[in-house]
Amino acid sequence: MNSRWSAVGALALLGAAACQRHEAPVEPGAATPEALIEHSAEFERQVVEVADGVHVAIGYGIANSILLEGDDGLIVVDTMETAESAREVYAAFRRISDKPVRAIVYTHSHPDHIGGAGVFADGAGDIPVYAQRELVRNMERTSIELQPAITRRSMRMYGSALPPGAVINVGIGPFVDVHEGSTVDTLRPNRVFDAALEDTVAGIHFRLEHAPGETDDQLLMWLPERRILLSGDNFYRAFPNLYTIRGTGYRDPRTWADSIDRMRALRPEVLVPSHTRPLRGADAIDAALTTYRDGIRYVYDQTLRMINQGMTPDEIAARLRLPPHLASSPWLQTFYGDPAWSARSIYAGLLGWYDGNAARLRPLPPAEEAGHMIALAGGIDAMQRQIASAAAAGDHQWVLQLSDYALRIDPGLDAVRDARIVALRALGEREANPNARYWYQMRAGEWAGDFALPPRIVTPTPEMLARMPIRRFFDAMAVNLDAEASAELTIAVGFEFSDSSERYTYIVRRGVSELVDGLRDDADLVTRVSAQTFKEMLAQRRNAALTLARDFEMRKGGKLELVRFMRLFAPVDG
Ligand SMILES: [Zn+2]
Q1: Would you say residue 298 has pLDDT above 70?
Q2: Measuring CA to CA, which residue among 245, 250, 68, 29 is closest to residue 153?
Q3: Ligand 1 centroid, distance to 109 Cα (angstroms)
Q4: pTM, two decimal places
Q5: How far apart are CA 254 and CA 237, in angstroms?
Q6: What is the pLDDT of residues 345-367, one digit of tens each?
Q7: 435 beta partners
């Protein structure tokens, strides 16, 4: 949800609920920036031996990586966000054991758990990689179809371009170890399962169970003889990210709570989450898990109660509060997730985008609404005076909402832009949720021209590209098709690959893509290239113009027509 939409939403309420919300005094138990600073102790960099042969690397990146030492080999559970952070953890693990890594387990599809797998496999290409079946589809959607949006939003949420010292911690880790030039080296899972899988590797007997929650491909790993539970991201020391502001599909809190109930039923003696520190002792673990599931169910149940009473997402977000005993729990501090964001996500997840207000069914386009609001304020000068007085009163949220209108009509209003930057910085400064804190600060920096976000930050290694199916690269082309430029065009292009027997015909039909297996006889163009070159070009490891000129061979039609075709996928040719 962007700031324009929330501005419109709050105005639809006109007043009471929205004003109460941001003028309310800090509630007892609510997180503060000072508490966020103390929370950094959670991420002190070290490898902790939780139980005999069970080691957790904490503080090397946003996530933990877990080492299980068996008789004649090792299992690594979760592999960090990049090859670079994985190398640091791998070196630390090598100080513990020189046994070979026999298997890798991914607790779920998020990039901070799969990005460095190739490093741990250490050249052994055929190592078993365990994951729940849904993982591959989720990983590909995030890393291919939605890559630009998720990259941009993740950078804002994690404060990626902020000056040194600005990032206190990122709530569930000290920082995200992703920089321009970082590489990812994800291995594709080759031991997938639906509901459960039991196995023994290097003498370590384990059971993997599908445990949907933070993702629908989440698993839990249970070592039954030792009562050790690896919980992935369904539990960590912060309010759960029932919704993440970097953008996500629906995370069903009911299913999440059910998965935690199954974890409780196991009565683990040791709990090793994939973020924040491990816990020991059956009673302490049970108490923490019970609080956690209660926090999730409270938000879910009370949101539905308010939905059924007829409230809109804005109204529910303004009203929903955890009860004091949950709000003050160390397990539910809002250092990552947030109950109000969660409530909005539950609404959208169960009822979709429409809030039931007839005024929102076909709202005025944003520019038209802004024009009316400025006229209502008495013109742009009067609107600027309103913004200045809101700024003077310290009503930073109102400055953001009013400046949305003013800047939409005239993006060159320097005084309004400056007021917006000041408001964003002030909101960031007092914000205890790191995701929101860095989002405000990043947007301030972007408005101020301190930095611009790169379109892409991590690059897949050539080895990782080689492992990815060719079809996925055509998916990336489809979501980049310039519908306007191809509005009147119908063209079929055959692709042959010199290093693969796969053949495809890519059809553009008046603004729409269709990929067909095999080479169609009536293709307008047929080209031949190595699949690896094609993938590296689309992943922007190679200059597109040069690659098209040098490495693509024409079997039918001319090179210029092929170049014209590839230009329809603008960012790809960028
Ligand atoms: Zn994670």
Answers
A1: yes
A2: 245
A3: 9
A4: 0.90
A5: 19
A6: 999 999 999 999 999 999 999 99
A7: none
